[in-house]
């Protein structure tokens, strides 16, 4: 065996002027060399010798080998020496996102039209915040395990409730399918699992390997059922808003914790009725932010309620291309926009979230693509949860101001009004954290 390191180092000297920046390697010298170095050459002199040759030793590994810094061509030269192996000291990354469908969640991370979730997650994933999801209720799904607080079922009409009674403490979605001729539709319609899809966008578990990640996976969600077969009544919605914001509703036990934000992904054409106007005003006064979808009628948002009610954050939808989605409502009363998908096209250009295979009742928990302004609103609600996790003292109006101030310009076309722009979770939470630090 030859004494390899000095020779290798001599070779290395030639290439120290190379321009490539050094990388870290683990070098294994032949066993005899190692023994000789250990026996007869003090470590310090070996290292000094190495240094004059341009090889920068870092330390000796307990499991064998030397950690050194080398330029690429130096490493190649060293590797050509008999008995020497050179391995790159690989840079390992933590497995922060292991959920198998993450890559398909373009609305979370797409450089152009995504909401920049990972930047926001440097600060918070929503711990301590509570979102109330007023919708069709909820189905059992592994993505919701440990994510829910006790909810309520506000559907008061027994015929549309489909669970055998009026209001009750179980917000499970029994399915909102309809028979031919029901609900004004000639054909039969399958259950939409609308509330389940919305809930996943906010609180689907992170790091459980299965499926997707919600934008606020450490927040808690209160499932509140207000929509049954053929939809729901404004009176039930008004009561649900009062209840979720910590107000008193006769005959209903109080909510376990006032919601930081109330998501209302529903609407109908008409003015803001006084019962909803009052419920929203009172909810805001108690400290709950109310987020609504702008609606899918291709009309001015002021024609759709409760998106046209004073004080709500009204959310329009962007398509995969970054322009306003073809179906989205628009106009001056839109607060800001969020990804909502293309709706007509089935698949990848829509919004992937939790879903159920049941055509009528619950069957199997899966993931499915849906779209619409309905899907855009919960992304904003989840961002509000992140903001209130980062700063529990942030007020209702300040939430709106920060959402607006930190929205990005719409990446595509929106001539008719998409509000302040595309919601930006990263920039918004960053601004909230900075603001709080300035105050404290
Ligand atoms: Ca019921
Ligand atoms: Ca029920
Ligand atoms: Ca998951």
UniProtKB/TrEMBL annotation:
Protein name as catalogued: S8 family serine peptidase
Biased composition, class Basic and acidic residues, residue ranges: 160-170
State the similarity comment: Belongs to the peptidase S8 family.
- Supply the alphabetized keyword list: Hydrolase, Protease, Serine protease, Signal
Spell out the InterPro entries in the cross-references: Peptidase_S8/S53_dom, Peptidase_S8/S53_dom_sf, Peptidase_S8_Asp-AS, Peptidase_S8_Ser-AS, Peptidase_S8_subtilisin-like, Peptidase_S8_subtilisin-rel, Peptidases_S8_13
Q: Where are the residues of the annotated region Disordered?
A: 160-180
Active site: which residues?
Answer: 135 (charge relay system), 194 (charge relay system), 374 (charge relay system)
Signal sequence coordinates: 1-20
Q: Where is the Peptidase S8/S53 domain?
A: 126-420
Cited CDD domains: Peptidases_S8_13
Question: Gene3D superfamilies this protein is in?
Answer: Peptidase S8/S53 domain
Q: Which domain of life is it from?
A: Bacteria
Query: Which PANTHER family has this protein been placed in?
Result: CEREVISIN-RELATED, PEPTIDASE S8
Task: Provide the species name.
Answer: Luteibacter jiangsuensis
């Amino acid at each position: 065996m030859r004494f390899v390191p000095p020779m290798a180092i001599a070779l290395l000297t030639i290439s120290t002027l190379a321009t490539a920046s050094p990388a870290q390697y683990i070098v294994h010298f032949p066993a005899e060399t190692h023994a000789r170095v250990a026996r007869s050459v003090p470590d310090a002199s070996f290292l000094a010798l190495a240094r004059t040759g341009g090889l920068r030793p870092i330390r000796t590994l307990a499991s064998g080998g030397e950690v050194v810094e080398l330029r690429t061509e130096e490493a190649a030269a060293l590797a050509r020496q008999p008995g020497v192996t050179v391995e790159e000291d690989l840079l390992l990354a933590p497995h922060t996102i292991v959920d198998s469908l993450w890559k398909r969640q373009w609305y979370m991370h797409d450089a152009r039209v995504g909401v920049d979730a990972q930047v926001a997650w440097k600060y918070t994933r929503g711990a301590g915040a509570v979102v109330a999801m007023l919708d069709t209720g909820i189905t059992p799904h592994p993505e919701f395990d440990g994510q829910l607080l006790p909810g309520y079922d506000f559907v008061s009409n027994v015929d549309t409730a489909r669970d055998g009674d009026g209001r009750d403490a179980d917000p499970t979605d029994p399915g909102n399918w309809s028979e031919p001729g029901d609900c004004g539709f000639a054909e039969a319609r399958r259950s939409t699992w609308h509330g389940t899809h919305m809930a996943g966008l906010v609180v689907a578990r992170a790091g459980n390997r299965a499926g997707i990640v919600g934008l606020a996976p450490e927040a808690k969600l209160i499932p509140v059922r207000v929509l049954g077969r053929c939809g729901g009544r404004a009176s039930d919605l008004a009561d649900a808003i009062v209840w979720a914001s910590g107000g008193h509703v006769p005959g209903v036990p109080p909510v376990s914790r006032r919601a930081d934000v109330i998501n209302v992904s529903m609407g109908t054409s008409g003015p803001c009725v006084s019962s909803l106007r009052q419920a929203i005003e009172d909810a805001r006064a108690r400290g709950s932010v109310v987020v609504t979808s702008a609606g899918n009628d291709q009309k001015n948002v002021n024609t759709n309620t409760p998106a046209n009610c004073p004080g709500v954050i009204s959310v329009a939808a962007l398509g995969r291309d970054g322009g306003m989605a073809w179906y989205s409502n628009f106009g001056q009363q839109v607060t800001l926009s969020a990804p909502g998908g293309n709706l007509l096209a089935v698949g990848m250009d829509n919004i992937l979230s939790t879903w159920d295979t049941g055509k009528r009742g619950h069957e199997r928990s899966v993931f499915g693509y849906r779209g619409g302004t309905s899907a855009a609103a919960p992304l904003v609600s989840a961002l509000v949860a992140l903001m209130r996790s980062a700063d529990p003292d942030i007020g209702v109006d300040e939430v709106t101001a920060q959402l607006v101030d930190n929205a990005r310009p719409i990446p595509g076309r929106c001539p008719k009004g998409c509000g302040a722009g595309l919601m930006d979770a990263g920039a918004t939470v960053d601004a909230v954290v900075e603001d709080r630090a300035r105050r404290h």
